[in-house]
Amino acid sequence: MKLQNRVAIVTGAGRNIGEEVSKLLAEEGAHIAVVDIDKERGEKVAADIVAAGGKAKSFVCDVSSEADIVNLVGGVVKEFGKIDILVNNAAISDNKHIFEITKSDWDRVMAITLTAPFLMCKYVGKQMADQGKGGAIVNVSSTSGYYGRNRALAYTAAKGGVVNMTRSLAIQLADHNIRVNSVVPNKIGSPVGKDDFDPTRPVVNLRNRPGIPIDLARAILFLVSDDADFIVGADLFVDGGCSTMMPGGS
Question: Any catalytic annotation for residue 155?
Fold first, then answer.
């Protein structure tokens, strides 16, 4: 097993990508802190992991709250004794035009999609540094952080922030043997904040199929494992090759 007895926090773990990441890391031996604002969803994922022979505990956390994050980190350490891995997956989108989005919309997206990963990295990174044994952090960005969209504004700005924040964190935490990287998905699983996955949703990529959560989970497993020991500050695109294609090209 690649992650035997390591402790991993996964945010937004009650469904879709976060759920798949939690289950895959558990299969590889990690003890999982299943973090979600929805108590029932988080408990179900944790129960599924335990039923499959893994170790997991559900934690309810509003990642837009600094106090909740501080309590979460303390609770995970109390339960498992340490933290080795952090996957910042929780996010929401606005899906609005500049003339429609309100400041309240903007602030909420920023709080969950950009400020929350910052705070999680701050407090988990400090815990890892104090432990003195390093760690691995993966931030889930998006192709929306690299390209503009006609129906989202706060989300594209937040995900762009995640990209460069990841690079700065990689530099700042390197002295503590903490590797920070990001993954960059495109239309994987259900849309951000949605429960349902529509396999007929139009996608344009080089694989000619929609992405599914396990596609991203496998990439995250690689980045948090020792297989990626020499990879730091990288943005791993898991987008079926869509970002390599020129719009209008043949």
Answer: yes
